[in-house]
Amino acid sequence: MAAPAPSFYPNVNYQQEKEKITNFLENFAVEVSDPAQTPSRRKHSRRTPAALQFPYKEQLKTIADRTQSKLEISLDDVAAFEETEELAQNIEHNTKRYVTLFYEVIDTMLPENRTAPNDDSDPLEVILFQRRQHDAAREGTNAPLFPPMLTRRYTVCFKPRDTAKALSVREVKGSAVGRMVTVRGMVTRVSDVKPQAVVIALSCDKCGSEIFQEVTSHNFTPITECPSADCKKNASKGKLYLQTRASKLIKFQEIKVQELTDQVPMGHIPRSMTVHLYDDMTRSVNPGDTVYISGIFLPIPYTGFKALRAGLITDTYLEAHHVRQLKKQYSQMEVTPEINAKIEELAEDQNVYTRLARSIAPEIWGHDDVKKALLLLLVGGATKETKDRMRIRGDLNICLMGDPGVAKSQLLKQISKIAPRGVYTTGRGSSGVGLTASVMKDPVTEEMILEGGALVLADNGIACIDEFDKMDENDRTAIHEVMEQQTISISKAGITTTLNARASILAAANPQYGRYNPKKRVSDNINLPAALLSRFDILFLMLDTPTVADDLRLAQHVAFVHMHLHHPRLDGDFEAVDTSVIRHYIAKARKFDPIVPKEVGDYIVNAYVHLRSRAKEMEDFQYTSARTLLSVIRMATALARLRFADEVDLSDVDEALRLMDVSKASLLDREETQAQDPISVIFELIKTMSKDADGQMQSEIRISKIRDRVIGKGYTEEDLNNCIEAYHDLWMVAANGTKLRWMGVNEEDEENF
Questions:
Q1: What is the pLDDT of residue 570?
Q2: Can you tell me the mean pLDDT for 459-482?
Q3: What is the mean pLDDT of residues 662-666?
């Protein structure tokens, strides 16, 4: 006969551990020197009661009053309370057992709530109150007590230490079973929130007794015969019937967490882990979120036919205790005083538009106008909704098409990192259902469900699609509805629904022949259908034209980055803005909803009519339609948001029109694409600003208005003064230097200029 396996008894006295837990909950204090400041965590010390607060002791009072349902124990507080940190280490190594210990200790510490229930009370509260009254009326009764799980109206969760290392899914081994682990990954699937029973209430049809059966696992067998003393005495064997309202049900949700790209080894595919969320933890994550999830790693046996196939193999899951978002949504960002000061400093800078644009991927040299367009993509225009519920898209769509080696993919990577919800994918590796949604079976309920693709995961974010020209035509048609209506209509396997995909599309593509061939027409080089091109607000053509000066600066910039692993000092002698500050600045800018005044609306109308009259010149590039007019409004609204303005200005419209012209500038000859003299550009700008809505020249214009427009265009006040000096024979400075007056120019002489 084989010898029995040796037993292992850890040298832990759980009665002493309960005493430590009681001491911690009662005596842990935080020092508060100034009520306006954040309390500092510290060990318990003998100080005046006014200088100390007892957070856990106060939370137990609110739990007893039914105003709080979750008690989160920070392991940093537990470690700070003891010099040896033994209790914190024991909790990390045997978390599941210590959850039970904390429940037992808190049950003894909580005062009994004898408040009479009201109309808003939970049905269980009413049943417990009535049962206590019934038991109190029966003297000497031996009625069974309620199970502890039924009377607990709270949950205990552990928050990991700040120094806890976040693991990937494949790094969680068998030695972590029962321990507290922290996993980093992306949420790919989120199930519906369903009720899960923890205590089943049964009633006997013979004696009327109430039986409460506690459920300790995911599967249980309900009791069929009444175990009460009356039924046993009479041998009646009464049947038990389920009482749903008297049972205790908690909220349950199952999610899937997948490894991130940087965690997958070479030649492997990403692994995923099942995570269970309970009560207040449910609905805390959405598909596409990158999260840190801390919890208890536990095994769970297969059931049903899966158990027959699996044999002795068990599945594993993570019982979540704490969830932290890696990149919060714009609406959920917490602004610290330091970041708020930086945002106010940026808002006062007149050159904030150029500064923020150059701070996007500063390691990439040049492409200033492309980076400005990408900054507008991050900010986005204001989404409008008419009175009859018609939704007008506010998100921008941009396509970067150009020769190889112009850093298109790197720009896409940087944008996906800056955006709170950024999904990066490639055209060849993405199918139609991978971008939209696929139909699959829910592993919990065995129902047919929809699992969102890349565009659904990027909802309220940015979807970066690289190698856009290499996508299959059938898969590319799935994007048409997303780019304009921002929805995905699905009709598969009996499921007919519409999913939200309120995402901006940032696509990168190569010309049809690898490099742009100037000897062929534009439509022959761009291998994209016209219906798709019209949905892009801006289509940049980034051509690699050899120029000695530009090639020298590019080579010096790239060599500096490789030698020092950071970008050189930017032109203009200013430092690049940190990514977190950019994200907070954009979050504040997106709170504004600028309106378009009447004079600006008239200016946009005239500009659109002028663009339509020039449509034949660039008909091969991009067809000018009503979508072009909406694109100008979106970009102008995004520029107004950047200035924290409530109205769109004429300078915003001019900059939007300039970006649309610059996007086509690469097609022009080299002589025409050379940078114009700033004095000539400013003169043309002043001449345009001197015209009224009807196109007539005005005799005077305010210099302050010109200065704001010139600085908004990226020029300096010195360039403006040089322009005024260079054309002094055409105008004069009047009204103590506040106005510029044209000399010898009548309204009829407009065509002479």
A1: 62
A2: 78
A3: 71
For strand 272-278 and strand 248-258, is the pairing parallel, antiparallel, or unpaired? antiparallel
| Domain co-membership, 100 together with 208 | no
CA distance 449 to 443: 10
Q: What is the CATH number of the domain that holds 101?
A: 3.30.1640.10
DSSP state of 319: E
Strand partners, 495: 492
What does the pLDDT look like over 143-188, one tens digit per residue? Answer: 456 777 877 888 899 999 988 888 999 989 888 888 999 999 988 8
- Identify whether residues 662 and 687 lie together within a single domain: no
CB 171 within 8 A of CB 86: no
Question: Tens of pLDDT along 198-234?
Answer: 888 888 888 877 788 888 777 777 888 888 877 877 7
- For 382-409, give one letter per residue: b (16+ CB within 10 A) or e: beeeeeeeeeebbbbbbbbbbbeebbbb
In a domain, 78, yes or no: yes
pLDDT digits (tens, 9 = 90+) for 622-655: 667 778 888 888 888 988 888 888 888 888 888 8
Tell me the C-alpha distance between 729 and 675, whole Å: 25
Residue 165 CB partners (closer than 8 Å, separation 6+): 182
Residue 636 CB-half CA count within 13 A: 25
Based on the fold, state whether residues 352 and 406 are members of the same structural domain: yes
- Distance CA(427)–CA(481), nearest Å, equals 17
CA 25 to chain CA centroid, Å, is: 35
DSSP string, 179-196: SEEEEEEEEEEEPPPEEE
Residue 342: partners with Cβ closer than 8 Å, 6 or more residues away = 577, 581
Q: Which two tokens stand for residue 465?
A: 């699609």
Cα–Cα distances in Å, from 619 out to 453, 611, 613, 624, 727?
35, 11, 11, 8, 37
Confidence of residue 747 (pLDDT cuts 50, 70, 90): very low
For residue 232, being part of any structural domain is answered with yes
64 has pLDDT over 90: no
- What is the pLDDT, as a whole number, of residue 444? 62
Note whether residue 218 is domain-resident.
yes
Please give the pLDDT value at position 319. Answer: 92
Residue 720 structure tokens: 């403006």
Residues 6+ apart with CB under 8 A from 482: 436, 455, 488, 501, 503, 505
In angstroms, the first-to-last Cα distance of the chain is 110
Shared domain for 355 and 311, answered yes or no, is no
Residues 91 and 197 in one domain: no
Do 719 and 647 share a domain, yes or no? no
- The answer to whether residues 535 and 397 touch, using CB atoms and an 8 Å cutoff, is yes
Do 745 and 753 form a contact (C-beta atoms < 8 A)?
Answer: yes
Q: Which domain holds residue 462?
A: 337-666
Average pLDDT for the chain: 78
612 and 554 in a common domain:
yes
Give the model's confidence band at 297: pLDDT under 50 very low, under 70 low, under 90 confident, else very high. very high
Task: Report the domain count for the chain.
Answer: 4
Q: Read off the tokens for 15.
A: 């009665």
Confidence of residue 694 (pLDDT cuts 50, 70, 90): low
Query: Residue 427 contacts by C-beta under 8 Å, 6 or more apart in sequence?
Result: 465, 466, 467, 468, 469, 470, 471, 475, 476
For the chain, percent of residues with pLDDT exceeding 70: 80
748 and 697 Cβ atoms separated by less than 8 Å: no
